[in-house]
Every structure is written in C-alpha cells, then in structure tokens.
DNA sequence: CTGAGATATATTACACGTTATATAACAATA
DNA sequence: TATTGTTATATAACGTGTAATATATCTCAG
C-alpha cells in the first residue's frame, strides 16, 4: 500500500485535502440525489436554496450567497434556466441587474427536496462526522476513514429532521 | 449583506463548503509559492513530495499517493516532465509501468522547498487553524472568518520548523 | 505457444471552479 | 447633455478534477 502524502504532510496540504474530501462528499451526495430520480446536480441546490430562503436574488447576490465568483453563478443559473427551475428578468429599477426567481416547478422541487433529500443528506453527513470533536486534522482523518468504510448513501436514514435545525444553530454562534 | 447559504445549511452543504475552503487555501498557498519566484503550481508539490519520500513511483502509485485519479496524475506528471523536474522510464520488469523519479533539478527544488516554502506554508496554516478544537462546522466557520481577516501570506512566519513534525504526529494516531 | 482476460497508462470529453476582459446600463460632473 | 468612470452581467480562456474508453503489455489456461 502506498503512503497518502496529502494526509502525511498535515497542515502543509490542508487545502488539497479539504478539496479532496469536499469532492468526495459531493460525489456521494450526488448518488443520493440521483437515487431520488431528480435530474439535478447537487451543486445546483445551494442556488435554489438561496432563492427559496431570501426571495428573488440577482446574479451577483447569488454568487456571494453560495460563495463562488460571478461567472460561475452565471453559468449555473443558465443551467437552471434550461431546466425550467428558475426565471430571470431585469430588475425594474436597474436594467443591469437580473433578478432570478424560482418557477413553480423550481419551488416544487425545493419543497420536495426540503422534506426528503436534504434531511437525508444532512443526516448521512451528521452520521459521518456529527459527533466529531478535536483538532481538525484528526477529524479529517476520521471522515476519510469513515467515507472509505461506508459511503453517504449507506448512512443515516433516521432522525433526519433533527439535523437541519441543529446545523442552523451551530452556525448561529 | 447576503446570507451565506452554504454556511447556513450546515451538514447539508459540507461537501461544497470543504471544497470552497480548500480552493481558497490552495489559492492562498499559491501566493506564497509565487512570492518565492519558483515557477511551480502548489498542486504539483504533493507529487514531488511523494517521490521524495518514497523514491521512484509509478503513475498509478502517484495517483493513489496523492489521492486523485490516474488521468489526473498522468497530466500533472506530464507537466513536471515539461518542467524538467521529473524523469519517467518504463519499469525494467513490466513495460506497462512508468517509473517517475526526481531529476537533479527536481531534487534541488524539493530540498529548497523543504527548508523554506513548506515550513512557511505549514506555519501559516497552523496559525490559521492549529489550535482549533470542537465540532467541525464551528471550526470551518472560524477558518473562513480567519481567512477573510488575514490571508495565509500574512500569517505565521515564525516557529515554522516545529509545525511539520507536529503534523506527522497528528496523523500517526 | 496462443488467445482471452487483466492491468497500466494515455486520451478524450466533460464538470465546474477561476481570472481577465467585453458589453450594457447607470451615475455624476464639466 | 455629453463624457467619463463605475457597476452588473456575459463571455472567453484556462486549471484541474472526474468518468469512459483506447492501447499496450502482461498472465495464464488450454
């Protein structure tokens, strides 16, 4: 077996490692989403969730809200337009801004996801790392080992509804 | 100010969030590397470090070692070949395998980086999150806030040598 | 020793992030 | 009001990960 250098090098490779774990988590999440038969990418959800929470948002606000750059937001919103999940029209007061809102179809998808997929994913992730504590490198090692032992799709199918609100509290610090 | 949904949604978006932070860390690391005037990408370092630690490795072993897929390893090694930092030749016993080793130039770069850049980066990251403890979501929030307050390049220029060995111990659990 | 399957690497196409820059609309001042 | 600068979005080019597949080499059963 070969040494995992990214893991061995600790803080030096923390960036690579976070990215790597994040990609793995997203891929695992995609499996759960796909299993529900919705034709959507997991990475598109934060955009829908942002509009669902805050009401119609401009491209720039969406970019800020999901934490990526504006061209990335423009592209993803383009995809969601194609899928008929969102609608875009110029803001009435400023023709430069484009207000993006959920279509009925988009709102339905969000409502459905909120009751089924999202709690399921949150519960699986919580099962993976919800009770962890301690230095970050140790937690990451546990998460990596945990994912190797059992992917998200085989985790946490119970107590799902509890988890979302916990997450929000967490952030409220 | 717009709400950060990825942060708000907690475990549900942990994948996106880890990726986002990882990308940010890597971009910050690149600044430090660039400041040293070496014409190398931060993401290429793990490959060099892997060979430096284990001796010549095949493409497949490198992929495993760095934790990416084989096509990614093939591409990065291609770049390092272009840069003259590594050498590749078929394994003597199996013509399918390609053994990748450091050139003199590559070894020099590693030796130099080991004494200057790597401790610098590790120290900056340790300064950012070395003393953190507690649930992972809280730690991530602190890291995000910390990066916003002061990027890596403005962190941890002292006590650098200590950090690398600590990281290795950490992993030894 | 030959043909079938397995394995290692290379190639291709794609996903999704970035930076840099173009374009359109707004704001302000000479 | 015409010009000049700023702001919002779109587009282009690129980086670096992935999955799917082609190609070359090895292994082994018949």
Oligomer: homodimer
Could you tell me which chain pair has the largest interface and how many residues each side has? Answer: A-B, 67 and 67 residues
Structurally, the number of domains of chain A stands at: 2
- In sequence order, what are the helices and strands of chain A, one letter per element? HHHEHHEEHHHH
Structural class of chain A: mainly alpha
Helix content estimate of chain A: 55-70%
Instruction: Tell me the strand order in the biggest sheet of chain A.
Output: 1-3-2
Count of DSSP strands of chain A = 3
Estimated radius of gyration of chain A: 18 Å
Shape of chain A: globular
Give the number of helices of chain A. 9
Largest sheet of chain A, in brief, is: 3 strands, antiparallel
Q: Low-confidence parts of chain A, pLDDT < 50 over ≥5 residues?
A: 159-173
Q: Taking all residues together, what is the mean pLDDT of chain A?
A: 88
Beta-strand residue percentage of chain A:
5-15%
CA-CA gap between termini of chain A: 42 Å
Protein name (chains A, B): MarR family protein
InterPro entries (chains A, B): ArsR-like_HTH, HTH_MarR-typ, MarR/SlyA-like, WH-like_DNA-bd_sf, WH_DNA-bd_sf
GO biological process, one term (chains A, B): response to stress
GO molecular function (chains A, B): DNA-binding transcription factor activity
């Amino acid at each position: 077996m070969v040494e995992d250098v990214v893991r061995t090098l600790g803080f030096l490779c923390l960036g690579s490692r976070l990215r790597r774990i994040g990609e793995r988590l997203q891929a695992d999440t995609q499996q759960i989403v796909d299993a529900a038969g919705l034709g959507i990418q997991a990475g598109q959800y934060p955009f829908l969730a942002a509009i669902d929470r805050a009401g119609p948002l401009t491209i720039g606000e969406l970019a800020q809200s999901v934490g990526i750059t504006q061209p990335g937001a423009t592209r993803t919103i383009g995809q969601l337009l194609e899928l008929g999940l969102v609608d875009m029209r110029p803001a009435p007061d400023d023709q430069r801004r484009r207000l993006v809102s959920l279509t009925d179809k988009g709102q339905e998808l969000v409502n459905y996801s909120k009751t089924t997929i999202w709690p399921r994913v949150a519960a699986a992730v919580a099962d993976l790392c919800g009770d962890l504590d301690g230095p970050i490198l140790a937690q990451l090692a546990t998460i990596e080992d945990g994912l190797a032992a059992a992917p998200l799709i085989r985790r946490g199918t119970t107590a799902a509804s509890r988890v979302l609100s916990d997450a929000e509290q967490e952030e409220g610090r």
